[in-house]
Amino acid sequence: MAQTDNKRFFENLSGAGKAIAVLTSGGDAQGMNAAVRAVVRMGIYVGAKVYFVHEGYQGMVDGGDNIKEATWESVSSMLQMGGTVIGSARCKDFRMHEGRLKAAHNLVQRGITNLCVIGGDGSLTGANLFREEWSGLLAELVQQGLIDEEASQKYSALHIVGMVGSIDNDFCVTQRKCYLALVSALACGADWVLIPEMPPEDGWEEKMCQKLSAKRAGMKRLNIIIVAEGAIDRNNQPITSEHVKNLVVQRLGFDTRVTILGHVQRGGTPSAFDRILASRMGVEAVLALLETTANTPACVVSLCGNQSVRLPLMECVQMVRLWVYRGMRTRSFENNLKTYKLLAHRKPESELPQSNFNVAVLNVGAPAAGMNAAVRSAVRVGISEGHKMFAVSDGFEGFYKGQIKEIKWADVGGWTGQGGSLLGTKRTLPAKHIDKIAEQMRKYNINALLVIGGFEAFLGIMELLAARGTYEELCVPMVMVPATVSNNVPGSDLSIGADTALNAITVTCDRIKQSASGTKHRVFIIETMGGYCGYLASVGGLAAGADAAYIFEEPFDIRDLQSNVEHLTEKMKTSIQRGLVLRNENSNENYTTDFIYQLYSEEGKGVFDCRKNVLGHMQQGGAPSPFDRNFGTKIAAKAMQWISKKLNESYRKGRVFANTEDSACLLGMRRRALVFQPVVQLRDETDFVHRIPKEQWWLKLRPLMKILAKYKTSYDISDSGQLEHVVLNRPKQSEAMAAI
Questions:
Q1: Residue percentage of the chain with pLDDT more than 90
Q2: Where are the bilayer-spanning segments (predicted)?
Q3: Total-model pTM
Q4: Which positions ≥6 away from 648 have C-beta within 8 Å?
Q5: Rounded to an integer, what distance in angstroms lies between the CA atom of residue 187 and that of residue 600?
Q6: Catalytic: 148?
Q7: Which of 93, 168, 411, 609 is catalytic?
């Protein structure tokens, strides 16, 4: 972004003279503290006064010590904490006019006219009512002699921005918008799910038992049934977990256990995703408050895909009520539901279309958590589309060696939660073995390829594409799904496996910082993976609350290192006890992790001591996160649908022949949508020497990390959300699986 735009931000959007209050309301949720931290620090950064409102609306009504000015240090060490440290309470008083009058008086006394509310549907609706009544409330306060006319004029407008903080995820603009039970069923590959939004058909009991029995006959020893709170049947009768248990025991005689998760779901440390989402939303909320005018409607800030958005609060509330009244569901919910049905319930052979196409799937590059979920999804969607699916072991190396076999529906059962690559994966590229790969494709009559992997997969697709002129066997539809912890594949903002790696980094950094809880003034130097891509170091640093993150994409020298040491030294003179510095493994060939550790140790003598840790391959291992399981599942399903479409388009005279640019694509997340992009068109976007995209969206998050670490820096607001309107978008039947 041009420097003039940054100047415009810091001059025109100054928070000097403004007061912002932040509160959490309703049930607590993981990530609330990260949002509070971001609001406080961004507010202070732009020159505003920021206040905590303890205990939600009850604290606003009661006033006194419940409304306290926040400092930079008062939000230290809260990023990794679950729940909300400022308290959250449902308030009957605020529902009454007298309670809102007291709340208005308490805010005016402190000059607060900007309110950031973190909560669910009811909390945000209450905030908007408060805003609509504000002028009338001030008039009453003047009439009662509690404030004077000058104060009434000075604080005449109340500005409100909402952030959705709810584990139910039932508001119309929030990312990952569908209910816990359904997404959990997708993430764990549950055998059956019962949710209130989709009452099962009459006779569901028999169908469920038949499926469970068939699974046991197929040597499956474990079944999972997920019952949502509030599940009902077609007659509006409740379906409880105990009822389902008794049903299974009586009809099948299976040993059955009931586990009610309850508040376990509400507690615990927030994931990296929740911390990053909350931090971005918190900063966006402050920006929205600074830009608001008397005529600006109260808004909700969120992310759509990977982009910040602002939507009128009451449009969102009205949309939710319309959904409830009409029994409607969001497009995302419908797609999750259709995907679950497609992958969990196999149609009888007689009902499957007969395509006579053979599709091969393989993993290429380093293993990434979520690869197996993607393979499972691809295999089952392919079989549902009538294709014969083939699994290739050990990537392109296994391909040319003929390690290819048909893979069936049951073969991928239980793969969703498995880490690594069960197919086997290697970094071998196909160029030296093109003739043998073409021979294997001819032998097995492979009509399409799905390649799941990292940068080597991208290079491999390009090499296959280049050989089409020599080998007609390669003139088939090919699609790549990015899967790498480094998140360095061009054409996609996100890769399967990156979220799991971020969680590993975040959890490890939390533990490392906790190890020094009894030690004053310690700085940890942490090395992350990623090759030349600084995604893990930068975004992991934002999630873990790092003070600095050194990456290849942002060159640094000894003066920068010295400046960072001095900055940490100043922070250590306050109540800050621990510092965290991340370094990408290939950020600089001279300023190694050892060098930075020794420099910090020497320059910090007498103020802080240092420790270093190299995280290594622990970032690559472990079970995939729920995000990676669902992302892998849905993106692979979409890739298989594209393959089916291309196969039908390119089938002529009894054979498949596809040699156009758009017949070899990469499916990636771009801002708000999943997009198919011809691989050849991505060539100019790629730095092949360092194996990274030339432009990377997450670089815009680095100033945010610096701001939250108390550095003075310019902040690019080109991606800040603009006020949009809520659109009622009821998905057509044909779109059920097309849009994810």
A1: 67
A2: none
A3: 0.90
A4: none
A5: 43
A6: no
A7: 168
